[in-house]
Amino acid sequence: MSFETLNVSIAGGVCRIGFNRPDAGNAINDRMVEEFAQALETCARGTGADGKPVSIVVIEGNGEVFCAGGDFKAVSETGSAGDPEPLYDIWRELAQGPFVTISLVKGRVNAGGVGFVAASDIVIADKSASFGLSELLFGLFPACVLPFLVRRIGHQKAHYMTLMTKPVSAADALGSGLVDVLADDAETALRQHLARLQHLNKQAIARYKAYMNACSGSADRDKASALEANRAFFQIQRSFPGSAVMSRN
């Protein structure tokens, strides 16, 4: 696949999507949103050249920046930030789509860049990573980022991060839950995760994420859906013996 603002490759059931606007700090513009949506659609529906369905999506930056957020230069030139819905839908697809999404973070993440991280299933960062929400300094606030950030780190921590506007270190992000793994060598950590995650079936991932995204965490409210999902799974097992291996590990 050929893109202007992204580097995209698919192999072994893994799609790597790299932001590729280094001169603009990998800032988000309309073209990047269009291309990212196209890449995710391919991941959801397609396969790589080897015929394997895409079950893992890795998002990464380049150089010293993961993603600096919205392209304010483009906004100042056009006088409009455009429609936020397509970008929000990308983050929702990362959170809910039929694949495991991993943000591999090196360097600075700001504003809308935090949306990509917060929407990911797994976040692996090295010690150079920092995460900031600077919007309130400009009289704005990260309305579209916050639903994903609150889901990941909780209401008060997201509230504090938004109010303070200062970058959060990789270590502090690990402590808050924004980062899952802090590694000296993020690429090595990614390879270790992929070695495990590539054993997962895409249909199982899709079913699990659909269930997990609807899960409220309340034993009472979730009882009906939990029982339904459990019964449906074992119905599949009876219909297709040997379709999955039960393990205590």
Structure report:
- The protein has two domains: 6-197, 2-enoyl-CoA Hydratase, Chain A, domain 1; 215-239.
- It is built from ten helices and ten strands.
- The protein is α/β, with parallel strands linked by helices and 249 residues long.
- The strands form two sheets. It has a six-stranded mixed beta sheet, sandwiched between helices. A four-stranded mixed beta sheet has the order 4-6-8-9.
- Helix content is 44%, strand content 16%.
- It is globular.
- The chain starts with 5 loop residues before the first strand and ends in a 10-residue tail after the last helix.
- The protein has helices at 30-45, 72-78, 85-96, 112-119, 146-153, 155-164, 170-176, 186-197, 202-214, 223-239, and strands spanning 6-11, 14-19, 56-60, 65-67, 100-105, 108-110, 122-125, 130-132, 168-169, 181-182.
Secondary structure layout plus pairing:
Elements: E1 6-11, E2 14-19, H1 30-45, E3 56-60, E4 65-67, H2 72-78, H3 85-96, E5 100-105, E6 108-110, H4 112-119, E7 122-125, E8 130-132, H5 146-153, H6 155-164, E9 168-169, H7 170-176, E10 181-182, H8 186-197, H9 202-214, H10 223-239
Parallel strand pairs: 2-3, 3-5, 4-6, 5-7, 6-8, 7-10
Antiparallel strand pairs: 1-2, 8-9
Helix pairs in contact: 1-3, 3-4, 4-5, 5-6
InterPro entries: ClpP/crotonase-like_dom_sf, Enoyl-CoA_hydra/iso, Enoyl-CoA_Hydratase/Isomerase
Keywords: Lyase
Enzyme class: lyase
